[in-house]
Task: inverse folding
DNA sequence: AATTGTGAAATTGTTCACAGCA
DNA sequence: TGCTGTGAACAATTTCACAATT
């Protein structure tokens, strides 16, 4: 079980980059889960934590937790577990959460507005610096303290403000054109909320959140309940 | 390439349920992609479509498209491809999109409001019938045409209105308590937007959308760019 | 005694390659 | 001929199981 005993730990250098270890997409997703779990355990005062306890934060196995972490280094102590604070900081570094990122958001509609107010973003270092829209009634006004620019000036403003990461909350019909502008400005990371497939060059990372697709998954489960389909 | 030639097709019964075929989570996700692709092709007037063309809608291989579809039946015609309209309807049935679902949404804040206005939901048969909040200023008022109830009455109202599916857009701190109420009302499907891990019984399907986690993935990619990590 | 770190085994998921059919 | 449907081969991921360590 969890231990409240404070414990000194030494750590080795991260080695995933050196050993050619393979880090899968799902490993990254689980790293985010561990990070959230560790934040909770830290708040509750735990000093060390076992892979078993960490696994409970997400229906995983202890072996998987250990395997995931082992891609990046040896952070634990045999017989004792992982030091909560240190492991949390280590994962923060791996995920790039030990710094701030300049974010721009395109499309100040319903979804866009909700994201501007989303408190998790600034907490994790994602600071929305610029907003863009194509609606003249919104352009050149402030929205919750952030200036709204004309989407026509997207590429130049992104460069000017050294934006690292763009969130797309535009209609599906506009998504590809806006993406092309974002890419032309040299931005390498895009989070897309438009319910459509968009194309980016290989060196640009694109992640898409499609809320309809999530509901479709649920309705699939409802329809297929009771059959021996494996999830 | 794509063919515009109309073609008569006969179809076999779906057999995934009979053969014990294994349908993975990713297969369901891809089914959603195919559905969207087929909608586009149908709009453009195509009558038949090959697995190759369908694969382009999402960086997949033709073999994967065929394998995915084969879990549910033989929908295509050798030498010709798949009939667009029929395949779309078939997938709609598999995903449970050939009917409507009664949805309730808990938490009429920023995210909740955005979801109420999300046009994809009603398009696919997900009708938000009830809203819940714990803010007296919102309770018993209309929000975009839908009545807001006190979250205290959650369980009884869910039963009364035969709600199939609940969307959670509440703060992380309230998520588990609300979930327990939802589960007690017999609802078997939950879409969670609260950035926290929640527990549900095995017979309840839970999907979580965590927007911070998506950004974390992007910042990971930015930080680890250029290293031979495989995604 | 407890728990990590990690090769090896098991499992799951993807791609290949080709027989079968229109 | 062209393209599906699918078993077999291959690849990736997860779990096992145990030596190593505190």
Result:
């Amino acid at each position: 079980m969890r231990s409240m005993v404070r414990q000194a730990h030494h750590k080795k250098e991260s080695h995933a980059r050196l050993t050619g270890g393979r880090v899968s997409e799902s490993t990254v997703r689980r790293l985010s889960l561990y990070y959230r779990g560790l934040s909770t355990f830290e708040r509750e005062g735990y000093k060390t934590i076992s892979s078993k306890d960490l696994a409970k934060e997400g229906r995983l196995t202890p072996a998987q937790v250990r395997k995931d972490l082992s891609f990046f280094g040896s952070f634990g102590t045999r017989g004792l577990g992982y030091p909560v604070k240190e492991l949390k900081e280590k994962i923060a570094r791996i995920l790039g959460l030990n710094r701030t990122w300049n974010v721009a958001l395109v499309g100040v509609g319903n979804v866009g507005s909700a994201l501007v107010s989303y408190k998790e973003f600034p907490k994790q270092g994602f600071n929305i610096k610029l907003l863009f829209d194509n609606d003249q009634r919104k352009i050149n006004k402030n929205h919750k303290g952030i200036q709204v620019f004309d989407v026509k000036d997207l590429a130049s403003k992104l460069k000017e403000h050294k934006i690292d990461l763009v969130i797309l909350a535009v209609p599906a019909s506009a998504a590809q054109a806006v993406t092309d502008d974002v890419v032309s400005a040299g931005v390498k990371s895009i989070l897309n909320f438009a319910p459509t497939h968009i194309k980016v060059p290989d060196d640009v990372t694109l992640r898409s959140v499609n809320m309809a697709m999530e509901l479709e998954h649920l309705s699939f489960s409802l329809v297929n309940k009771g059959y021996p389909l494996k999830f």
User: Anything to note?
Assistant: Residues 50-52, 62, 66-67, 69-70, 74-82, 230 of chain B lie near DNA strand D (CB under 10 Å from a C1').
